Amino acid sequence: MRKRRQIELFSISFLDLLSGALGAVIILYVAIPKNTARESVMKADVVTEVMKKDLSDSRATIAELQRKLSEMQTAVVTAPATPATERPVTPEGDMNADVGFKFKGKNIVFVIDTSYSMTEEDRMSQVKAGLKMLLTSLSAAFRIEIVQFPLGERAPFRSMWGTTKDFQGINRMDAFDFIYALNPSGGTPTRDTLLFVLKNYESLSDIVLLTDGVPTYHNSNQKDDIYEILRQVRESNPTKVQISTIGVGSNFLKDKSSEQFKFLSLLSQEHNGFFVGF
To answer: Considering Cα of 229, then 231, then 235, then 237, what sign does the dihedral take?
Structure first.
């Protein structure tokens, strides 16, 4: 009897163990898929909420950008026209969105100050880079010429070709080479250079003057009379060539009472051009 009772006890314990194991397996088999599906649903819900929030934020951002664009368009329409913000003429006679300046026509002489003061603030490099960008944005219908002043002590100025040429092909390469070779030296003989350009270029529509300082006499630090220069340029411009000016150097923006600021602003105003400083 003792032996049989022990067997019964063993059998019950063993069955309990098997039942427990089987129950655990069933629980794992049934519960895990349900939990995984539930987690997937929860993750999907979270993703959906995030997407909804991102969509809402994007709509708000777009609405804000549209509002700002509308304000800018209104400001452009209502603002008075200024030469510096108008757009230039295209080959068809319309405005050219590629360039930020308004030119009178398509025959342009760029007059570049290469005086020694252009070494300050790395102005010469800035002018070279800016001029290249400006020229690159012009269409093939434009004819250009570049005149530097001075040519050191040798001459008050030097022209690239002596006439305006189509800015394409080999002429384009020549212009970039000419700009690359510009080196600062000497004074600022602005008077001699402007009068030379006005006298020697036929069918000229525009002059763009880039300079950083007050005009001087050639091979001299003595300042020239800016009002006398303005008078002579007026008298030498019967065909109404548009003269625009670009002031180079931080002092143009800081001191509007300086002689160079007065000279460039008056020169551009008197000849219907634009005047900017950088």
So the answer is: positive
- Residue 274 φ/ψ, nearest 5 degrees: -100, 155
State which amino acid sits at residue 196. F
Q: What is the DSSP letter of 253?
A: H
Q: How many CB atoms lie within 10 A of CB 46?
A: 10
21-30, 127-136, 231-240: least confident range: 21-30
Least confident of 13-17, 65-69, 82-86, 126-130: 82-86
* Rounded Cα gap, residues 85 and 131, in angstroms: 18
User: Are residues 273 and 244 in contact, defined by beta-carbon separation less than 8 angstroms?
Assistant: yes
**CA-to-CA distance for 33 and 42, rounded, in angstroms?**
14
Q: How far is CA 178 from CA 7, 14, 70, 107, 159, in A?
A: 111, 102, 44, 18, 10
Distance CA 195, CA 148 (A): 13
Is residue 247 within 8 Å of residue 278, measured between CB atoms? yes
In this structure, the number of other CB atoms found within 10 A of the CB of residue 84 comes to 15
For residues 198 and 236, give the distance between their C-alpha atoms in angstroms, rounded to a whole number.
7
Structure-model confidence comparison of residues 264 and 46, the more confident one: 264
Per cent of the chain over pLDDT 90 is: 51
Give the Cα separation of 83 and 207 in Å (integer). 14
DSSP 48-92: HHHHHHHHHHHHHHHHHHHHHHHHHHHHHHHSPP-GGGS--B-TT
Answer yes or no: pTM beyond 0.85: no
Looking at the DSSP assignment, which residues form a beta bridge with residue 155?
A: 151
Whether pLDDT at 36 is above 80: no
